[in-house]
Amino acid sequence: MTEEFNIGGGVYIPGFMLWALVAIVVSIPLRWLLTKVGFYRFVWHRGLFDICVLIILWGAFAALASLRT
């Protein structure tokens, strides 16, 4: 069953969009931290790495949300 969230007034947001937003919000400070630490020196393609981290976070949050139901 698809999980939807009502944000008021009959506007429904699919669950995967909400978890994508959470993943984006978490990835922004994570990218800043990785830049400050100098981790990106070891990464071949920063853009691909950032997208992969975002997808991993998105999947992790969606999996954690499915455990609670």
The proportion of strand residues reads 5-15%
Q: Strand order, main sheet: write it out.
A: 1-2
Helicity range = 55-70%
- SSE run: EEHH
Number of domains: 1
Q: How many helical stretches? A: 2
Distance between the termini: 11 Å
Q: Structural class per helix/strand content?
A: mainly alpha
Global shape: elongated
Sheet with the most strands?
2 strands, antiparallel
- DSSP strand count: 2
Overall average residue pLDDT: 90
Rounded to an integer in angstroms, the radius of gyration calculated over CA atoms is 15 Å
**Uncertain runs:** none
Explain how this protein is built.
It is elongated, with a radius of gyration of 15 Å. The chain has 69 residues and is mainly alpha-helical. A hairpin with a 5-residue loop joins strand 1 and strand 2.
Protein traits:
mainly alpha, 9% strand, two-stranded antiparallel sheet, 69 residues, single chain
Write the layout of secondary structure elements.
Elements: E1 4-6, E2 12-14, H1 15-37, H2 46-67
Antiparallel strand pairs: 1-2
Helix pairs in contact: 1-2
